[in-house]
Specification:
Length: about 300
Amino acid sequence: MRLYRAKLRLEGPYASPLASGMIFGQLCWTLRELEGEAALEAWLSEPERLWGVSDAFPADHLPRPLMAPRSDAGAPNSEDRKALRGRSLVTRAGFLKLRKGLRIQDLGGSVLRAPADERHRVARNSVDRHTGRALDTGGLFFRSEFWPCEAARDADAAGVDRDLYIEAPDEDLPRIRTLLAHLGRSGFGKAASLGRGRFALLAVSRDDELGQLKGANRRLSLSRGTIGPNMRDALWRVEPHFGKTGPQLALGAGASPFKRPLLLTRAGATFAPVGEGRFGAWLRDVHPTRPEIGHNAFHVAIPFREAENA
């Protein structure tokens, strides 16, 4: 498996979080649309070859590594914790500079950033399917959308570009480009028919700089996944996931649109790897009636070295 970095440019708001499992699911439906049902079934039949997908982060940023102080000297005081609260991103340049001997006290204000996308509540009205008109009463509902910053207003603004990391076999690079470009034109997630979730694919390239480090003793997850036996001394925060199958299956095959709820680790989890295998898993039995449906809980996990007595 190789680590690839895809550069995306958002073309407007998006209504579904740019989460790793949701992105992988949308790529599956895109593969089915472009190559057919048989191609998708063949791909999903070999979980060991499935791509690892990250969350999509503001360009040149990564999730803040979750670290525990190894000594009293490394523990941040209450004022520091308050000042850094909500800064869930670390600059890519800062991480690359520090990762050969990372300490918790190195994760200060100079390398940390807060997400810049703003959540807005948008009012919508339900439509009567028989008349094609908005309901006169009882049809109003609200949906949350994420609005990216158009320009960098200050040091914390993220702009409209995103970095998406994918672990995949070497021969899959053309497919990565094709699927991402088509998904960007179609729109990601909820309200794609209204223009939400559109993005342009700027580039896809190998990322050996981030994916390799000699002497590393820990890994930082860029995905939402599960903790496996080859992930020792893991630090993580839990993220509930309420997955859906998508309208292609719910409407076409009459299956329930809802998957079973899952508890996944947030991006930013860290762990000591055991061996060189993949981390996380392809989860099965996530749908009440369709056993073939799964969830991608593999981690895209990048190496770093935690300093002793950090």
